[in-house]
Amino acid sequence: MPTQPTKVLETFPNPHPERDYVIRIRVPEFTCLCPKTGQPDFATIGIEYVADRACIELKSLKQYVWSFREEGAFHEAVTNRILGDLVSACGPRFMRITAEFNVRGGIYTTVVADHRQPGWVPPAPVPLA
User: Model's pTM, two decimal places?
Assistant: First the structure.
């Protein structure tokens, strides 16, 4: 195969570090294994962030997500691990990970984890008429 799963996250310089703007990424094919049964768990991972100096490079993100396919992980743990890894890689002003797991045993799970850079305050919403 030309590419392989990896935990290495690459970044590139934020083209507009002077501005707060939101980057939204949707990953609809996240897979890990249930640590109790070994059965696959499927989720859609939503990533929203306000970059500081660096942005996440998408091909490396794809390979990073792929690296969880054979790992057992509780939903809460893997969501927070993804947040921690992405924050370590790019040092955003703000980041939110929303992991929406598919139904298992009649139960849906959604886990939301946030990071906020100390001292960062989001800009006030602009009401439009």
Answer: 0.94
